[in-house]
């Protein structure tokens, strides 16, 4: 069986990079984890383990909460989650170390940049604004922009339409297997980050073109003229 060395790969002909948001360029994992666990405990009345979140990580919020606890009243749980999220967001939000320098270097190389996330528009833009990243991105695709969501390709295809680029021109970078599956379905190259909640093994299992271990690694793998 042929295998791909996902640690060694040269990305040729790249004109734009699209990034997932949570866990990829901003460190929101603990924020989301705490808010979800608080919500489940508040409505269900018992503590939940962090490991219970792993199979459903990266889903849209309502889908994630329903998958974790089908009997949950989402109309009550989602606003409560957002209240808890806002508290932890204020306390804990940070960039993934080294990301700002990489975004700046990519922009200086003339590459176009975008974000494709399952977050709501207001929350996504607020997060990007709070870490000072909003200025880097030409397009920010959010939950409201498409009717289907990752791992379906529609959000990435919508970003391509906004940028007027072909799939071969673009690389998508994410921390969740659904990010890689969405990129594959959109016929674009996929880069997995190793620092996400799901970890390297889960990302390697979906066969990205490349796995990176620090944001700066992407620069070494880009073949820029």
Main attributes?
Rossmann fold, two-stranded parallel ribbon, 225 residues, 2 domains, 15% strand, alpha/beta, single chain, 42% helix, six-stranded parallel sheet, DNA polymerase, domain 1, disordered N terminus
The count of DSSP E runs of length 2 or more, i.e. the number of strands, is 10
Q: Indicate the CATH topology of the largest domain.
A: Rossmann fold
Counted by DSSP, the helix tally is: 9
For the termini, the CA-CA separation is 34 Å
Average predicted local confidence, pLDDT:
93
* CATH-assigned homologous superfamily of the largest domain: HAD superfamily/HAD-like
CATH architecture classification of the largest domain: 3-Layer(aba) Sandwich
Task: Indicate the proportion of strand residues.
Answer: 5-15%
The ordered H/E elements are EEEHHHEHEHEHEHEHEHE
Helix content, binned percent: 40-55%
How would you describe what is shown here?
The structure is a single chain. The chain has 225 residues and is an alpha/beta fold. It folds into 2 domains: 11-27 and 94-223, 3-Layer(aba) Sandwich (Rossmann fold), CATH 3.40.50; 29-92, DNA polymerase, domain 1 (Orthogonal Bundle), CATH 1.10.150. 42% of the residues lie in helices and 15% in strands. The protein contains 9 helices and 10 strands. It has helices at residues 29-44, 61-68, 74-92, 99-108, 121-131, 154-163, 177-185, 199-205, 217-221; strands spanning 11-12, 16-19, 26-27, 94-95, 112-116, 139-141, 170-174, 189-193, 210-212, 222-223. The strands form 3 sheets. A 6-stranded parallel sheet has the order 6-5-2-7-8-9, sandwiched between helices. A two-stranded parallel sheet has the order 1-10. α1 (29-44) runs antiparallel to α3 (74-92). The longest helix is centred in the middle third of the chain and has 19 residues, at 74-92. It is globular. It starts with 10 loop residues before the first strand and ends with a strand. The model is unreliable at 1-5 (pLDDT under 50).
């Amino acid at each position: 069986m042929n295998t791909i060395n996902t640690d060694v790969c040269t990305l040729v002909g790249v004109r734009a990079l699209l990034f997932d948001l949570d866990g990829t360029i901003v460190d929101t994992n603990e924020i989301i984890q705490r808010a979800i666990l608080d919500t489940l405990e508040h409505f269900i009345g018992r503590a939940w383990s962090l490991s219970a979140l792993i199979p459903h990580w990266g889903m849209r919020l309502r889908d994630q909460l329903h998958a974790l606890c089908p009997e949950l009243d989402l109309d009550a749980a989602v606003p409560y989650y957002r209240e808890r999220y806002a508290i932890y967001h204020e306390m804990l939000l940070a960039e993934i170390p080294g990301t700002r320098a990489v975004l700046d270097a990519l922009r200086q190389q003339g590459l176009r940049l975008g974000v494709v996330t399952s977050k709501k528009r207001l929350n996504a833009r607020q997060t990007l604004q709070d870490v000072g990243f909003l200025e880097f991105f030409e397009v920010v695709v959010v939950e409201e922009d498409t009717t289907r969501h990752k791992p379906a390709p529609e959000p990435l295809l919508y970003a391509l339409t906004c940028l007027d680029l072909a799939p071969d021109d673009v690389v998508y970078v994410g921390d969740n297997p659904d990010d890689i599956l969405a990129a594959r379905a959109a016929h674009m190259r996929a880069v997995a980050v190793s620092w996400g909640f799901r970890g390297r093994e889960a990302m390697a299992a979906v066969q990205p073109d490349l796995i990176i271990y620090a944001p700066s690694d992407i620069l070494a793998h880009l073949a820029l003229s």
